Amino acid sequence: MQKVLVWDLPVRLGHWLMAGGFALAWVTGDSESWRLVHVFAGGTVAAVALFRLLWGVVGTKHARFASFVRGPRQAFAYLKSLLRFSPPHYTGHNPAGGWAVVLLLLLALASGASGWATYQELDGEWLEELHEFATGLMLAVVAVHLAGVLVGSLLHGENLPRAMLTGRKLGEPGEAIAGPRRLGALLLLGWAAAGAWWLAR
Question: What is the per-residue DSSP string for the chain?
Fold first, then answer.
């Protein structure tokens, strides 16, 4: 195997926008003076999650849900292989990582929708409780995801955070994607900015 281009620009940019937006929304969540920053950060996360759902259908090979969302049996088998310190290598997301991606996207949308409803002061304390629950659960999934990235990097001898920066991972030449999809990245930036602005109005 050799280093090949696996992650396109929309995937990488979306990943870091969600990570940064979630971190900023988390640290500003209890501050009234930083409320608008919190809403804008949360809106960015929700907008990126919506874009990623579309990109999971029309994006490059390894970005598509069809390439990495596998059944629960395969996900558990991969987790067991981690415990044996002999996980199989996947050029794209592994089966457990694929489920983490789906969970994070769904939780980002649930947190964003309930947060927007709370910001609009729609009736019902349950919306605020739903927002806090979804956000807390998302934080837990992020922690598991980070642990998986660390273990996967060590066991495969591959720097996975760097791969999400450069787009390059170990793989066969035939598994490489054709290009970075710069236009998709520009569309993502425009969509995320517009979505965050609209939610924070």
Answer: -EEEE-S-HHHHHHHHHHHHHHHHHHHTTT-STTHHHHHHHHHHHHHHHHHHHHHHHHS-GGGSHHHH---HHHHHHHHHHHHTT-PPP-SS--HHHHHHHHHHHHHHHHHHHHHHHHHTT-S-HHHHHHHHHHHHHHHHHHHHHHHHHHHHHHHHT--HHHHHHH-EEEE-GGG--S---HHHHHHHHHHHHHHHHHHT-
